[in-house]
Every structure is written in C-alpha cells, then in structure tokens.
Amino acid sequence: MQTLIENVNILNPLEEIETHRNVLVKDNMIKKISSKKITTKKDVKVIDGEDNYLLPGFIDCHCHIFAKGFHKEENMANPLGIHFYNAVPHAAQTISAGVTTIRDCGSADLSFKLAQQRRLFKAPKIHLSITPLVMTGGHFDLLLPSGFDMEIMYPGFPKGRCDGIEEVLKKTREVKRAGADFIKVMCSGGVLTTNTSPEFPQFNKKELKTIVCEARANDMKVSAHCHSLRGMNNCIDAGFSSIEHGTFIDKKTACKMVKKNVSLTPTLLVHQFLYKNGFPAWDSYAKEKTAKLREVVKVHKENISVAYEQGVNILMGTDSGVIPHGHNLEELVHLTDIGMSEAEAIASGTVKAAEFLGHDNLGIIKENYVADLVLVNSNPLDDVSVLTDNDNVLKVIQDGCEVKN
C-alpha cells in the first residue's frame, strides 16, 4: 500500500520547517521526502496537504486508556465488560486528538495491545504497565475500611498490592508475565486515594531497589507515581527511569535527576482540569480529594518550572483516564506555561518521548521512519494552543493508514 501526501510543510520540532514537501509512504514507513514531484504507481492514494503542517504522531507518556475517572462507585456497580468497552471510545478520542502512541500507566491489559495490533478498532499503539505495584495502605490500595476491595481483578490481570522484598519481587514478575512493557510503582500518596497524602513516600528503599533490579534483568524501565520529595529521591537512588507528577520537586532533586538521567512526566493538565471542574456530586470522597488537590495545584507549576530550568528531560503526559480522554494536547499549553518553547513542548510529546520509549525510528518525520503523522491546519510553533482544538487536527495517519480523515 502506498500513500502520497503532497504540498505539506514538515514540522520536526527541533529542526527548521521544510516547506512545500511531498511525502511518500509505503506500507507503514516513510519511503521518500522531496521538494520535487514524486512519481508513483497508479494505485497510490494521493492526499492533498493544501500547504498545511505535517507533524509526527504524538506520544502521551502517561495515560489510563481503560479508565473513566477511577470512581470506586462505578467499579462496584458496572459489570466487568464495561471496563473493556470503555477503551473503544477512549481510543477513538485519543486518536482524534493526534496521539498515535500511548504509555499506559495502569488499568489496560494485554487485550488492548493485541486488539490494536489486529486493528479490531482504531486505537493508539500502547506501552503497557498492566497494573501498578502498590503497598498495603498506599495510593491505589482500594481495599476500603468497609472491607470491600474495589480493585478490578480478573485472570491475566494481577492485583498490584505487595509488601516486603519477596512480595515485590514476585509481583514484578507477575506483572511482566501478564504482558507489561515497563513497571509502574506507586511511590507516594496521591489525590484520588483516601487515607493517603501526596507528600509522603511509599515503599522502602530495599523494596524499590528490588523492583528495579528485577526489571533491569528483563530490560524493563521502572516508573514512579510520586509527588513526595523524599519519595522521588528514594526512586532516583534506586535507579528508576522516570518520575510521574513530581509535584514537590526542588532544585537539588532536579539536578540529581539530570545527573542520573531520570525523566519527568509532570502531567500538569490533570491537576488543573480537576481543580477547575471538580468531582461528581455522587463521589463520596470528593471533599477529601479537593482538599488535597488544592495543595498540589499551589506548588506544582512553580516546581516543574524549576525542574525545566535545571535541564530535566520532560515528557508529555496527561493522566487521561483520571480526566476525560481526547484533551491530550492541552498538556502542551501547560508545558509552555512553565517556560518551554512551543518547539520544546512538541518535542516532549514526539521525538523526546520516542527516545525515552526506546524507539529509534519514531517521533520525527524522516525517510525510513515509521509513518505516524498528524496534519494540522496552522503552524503550532506560532501558537501551540491550535493543537488543543481537535477540529484543527485534519488527518491522523498511524503506521501508514489513515485513522482520522
């Protein structure tokens, strides 16, 4: 299969824009880029780019594609099948926003990856963590004081709760067995779980090092949900590859992350979105969540600005699933608010994200690279907010196939 995209301006975020280019895609790869007319076979599909802007497909480095708010009441009320069916519209909303790859930080299982590969529905490609490791009483330990356990569990999807060196070792192996591409660990309290607080670390250093050691033996990275400053330092010392959220990060810790090559996915959008829109009236824990959120919002943006100034590698991630899907590229606006240029913000969700995930042929528009492409109607380097309106995303191509037109 061949597709020819004519008359587009190629925008690789850390390079000069290439104007009036023609791009030939064969199967799932970019075969040729030229300023001259490309001669093709008769059966080629031709797309008139109309002098619009062609970007690499975006990568959301932190989302939850199965999730719809993580409301315990819904876990209790819904049949298990709803958990899977939710993924279909969520995937469509994500693709429509221009996101062709996601890194799922908990709730999706191997079924989604296989369904995407078999093209059962339009969906972003996925890097799986399956389920996060969580200590007893920690963030996302969903055993309530009533004794009811709200954690979703079924064959092929192990429970995440574990304590002590032997248990975390076994749980890391169980999650890998279930199909994980990386390991996610809840290393501090969070906003959404009752009886935990974001500023406190979770898991001890021996447990964290055990998880990293086992993951590295299988060439897997380890990611930490972590708001806590002490928790972040525990994770950096243990050898984690990334910190998610990083709310209470300071200059010293940021410098340590740069030295140790630890990336940061700040998910600025989720806190701002929840603070503005709140929680459903029927959420029994809304008041407690709002109180914690208020403290997080006060310092998050300012602290992430410090991390950026110190040179921490920042990745685009949204925590979609906690908030509605399809708003993914709004995160780019929040990244420019902390001081990043438009080009740097776009790079955090394309070339930088691809590098972090270990792809050497993804994240930029180049010959012999994967044809994940987004066509937009204006130049986001002038104003990145144009990407927040899905109507401005004219076409999305994933592995050489149009998934939005």
Short overview:
By secondary structure, the protein is α/β, with parallel strands linked by helices. The protein has helices spanning 72-77, 80-85, 87-96, 110-117, 164-177, 205-217, 229-238, 251-260, 268-277, 286-309, 330-337, 342-348, 351-356, and strands at 2-10, 18-26, 29-34, 45-56, 58-63, 99-104, 125-128, 183-186, 222-226, 242-245, 263-265, 373-376, 393-398, 401-404. It is built from 13 helices and 14 strands.
Structure in words:
This protein is of the alpha/beta class and 405 residues long. Helix content is 33%, strand content 20%. It contains 13 helices and 14 strands. The strands form 3 sheets. It has a 7-stranded mixed β-sheet, with no helix packed on it. It has a 4-stranded parallel β-sheet with strand order 8-9-10-11. Strands 5-6-7 form a 3-stranded parallel β-sheet. Helix 7 (229-238) links the parallel strand 9 (222-226) and strand 10 (242-245). The mean pLDDT is 95.
The residue ranges in which pLDDT falls below 50 over 5 or more consecutive positions are: none
Assembly state of the chains shown: single chain
The overall average pLDDT, rounded, is: 95
Using only CA atoms, what is the Rg?
21 Å
Strand-and-helix sequence, N→C?
EEEEEHHHEHEHEHEHEHEHHHHHEEE
Helix content: 25-40%
Top keywords for this entry?
13 helices, 4-stranded parallel beta sheet, single chain, 7-stranded mixed beta sheet, alpha/beta, 405 residues
